[in-house]
Design brief:
By secondary structure, the protein is mainly alpha-helical. It has one domain. The protein has two helices and no strands. It has helices at residues 2-53, 55-66. The longest helix is centred in the middle third of the chain and has 52 residues, at 2-53. The chain starts with a helix and ends with a helix.
Length: 70
């Protein structure tokens, strides 16, 4: 009986650390995704401003991004 209790205690400790590791990795992945999303929004706003100020330059940038440049 004592062996079972010790086994459950060890299992609980291992499960705690595994859950903590999994949630930490999930948090890191969510943080990286949010940072990339912020950069994408900033890039989009800059592109829109460029499109308003210099449409020909914005068209060139769009061609380079799409890979249609020859």
């Amino acid at each position: 009986m004592l062996k079972k209790i010790i086994g459950f205690a060890v299992l609980a400790i291992v499960a705690y650390f595994a859950l903590k590791l999994a949630l930490t990795l999930l948090g890191v992945a969510a943080g990286i995704a949010m940072t990339l999303l912020k950069f994408a929004v900033i890039g989009l706003v800059v592109f829109w401003v460029l499109k308003l100020i210099a449409p020909s330059t914005a068209a060139k940038v769009e061609e380079v991004i799409k890979g249609e440049r020859s």
